[in-house]
Amino acid sequence: xxxxxxxxxxxxxxxxxxxxxxxxxxxxxxxxxxxxxxxxxxxxxxxxxxxxxxxxxxxxxxxxxxxxxxxxxxxxxxxxxxxxxxxxxxxxxxxxxxxxxxxxxxxxxxxxxxxxxxxxxxxxxxxxxxxxxxxxxxxxxxxxxxxxxxxxxxxxxxxxxxxxxxxxxxxxxxxxxxxxxxxxxxxxxxxxxxxxxxxxxxxxxxxxxxxxxxxxxxxxxxxxxxxxxxxxxxxxxxxxxxxxxxxxxxxxxxx
Amino acid sequence: xxxxxxxxxxxxxxxxxxxxxxxxxxxxxxxxxxxxxxxxxxxxxxxxxxxxxxxxxxxxxxxxxxxxxxxxxxxxxxxxxxxxxxxxxxxxxxxxxxxxxxxxxxxxxxxxxxxxxxxxxxxxxxxxxxxxxxxxxxxxxxxxxxxxxxxxxxxxxxxxxxxxxx
Lengths: 255, 166
What we know:
The complex is a heterodimer of chains A (255) and B (166). Chain A has 255 residues and is α+β, with helices and mostly antiparallel strands. Chain A has helices spanning 7-14, 20-32, 34-55, 65-86, 88-105, 111-117, 125-128; strands spanning 137-144, 147-153, 159-165, 172-174, 180-184, 187-191, 200-204, 210-216, 219-225, 228-231, 236-240, 243-248. Chain A has two domains: 7-55, no CATH class; 67-248, no CATH class. The radius of gyration of chain B is 17 Å and the shape is globular. At the A-B interface, helix 1, helix 3, helix 4 and strand 7 of A face helix 1, helix 2, helix 5, helix 6 and helix 8 of B.
């Protein structure tokens, strides 16, 4: 073994990457070895020189942090929209499978009658198609780690997520700061516009005590209850490992 | 809204450094900005989760791949070696500005002459990544990063000397 320490080891010591005995050994050696001490000083100068040289290349970002963040979210929404359109035919076929699957676990209880039984409006696909130019919107909902996450993409004005409880248990809903919260007995409503229309909601409902409705105006698109998702008729959807993604062809603001 | 808050905090913390890394790596403001933003778009798209250090390493790794995968990067690098961005607010004299541009050009050339692994190692280390994180990014053992770093710096200094001699 050499009487001196390898440069790489000294560098690791300088970078505080050595622990315990290794760090102590280098420390003790440097205290007694002028040559390795000189090497350590040379390495420090070299590092500082490289840092200074690289700083010459730096220019401030042209966008502010807010602008860059907004651009990222916009690009993300656009890319998902492009992906959704490409997959529309496949997704339509999947809808049949998903709807068929749900019907299979609820024999004799087609989705429409299920919705009707809930006392809420049903959402036939034809009513969701707006006249004229209306952007698609997307909703992805997934249940993981004891909470429901609803990812929104370009939700229109009037879009809301409603959490209903029959037990009076406490629910927790976290949403974008611009979201509008409303509450009544057994119900929390979150209105989503502006930045919140492209964001994520996190909802915690105690087991067995409530349901979550994703709706636009009075029309329900999706219901989650007891860890199960149910779709309104006619929506294009694709299954996720732990949820479902809806592609709504176009949503008008009112009937 | 845990995820959104986390994303904003992550973005504010990492984006400036990721942008600087991409700018140093790609030598082009447009490419750097695109790569840094694209990395975050992919983060959202893949619903990547985790603690800050892991997410930060993931973003830098993805940005490195984005830069590498761009077919025009090499051509751009060669072309943009001649590009000398002007820092806003510079009050230097024309002579000083000329000298600064020349130094920028030399640094870019020296960096471009390094092997990709050395360049990535140097730039990641400059952004404060640990040896373990750097090792994961360039596919080596963490215990060898110190030695590789010393060698990469040495090669960079040699390249700088060559550029200054030309």
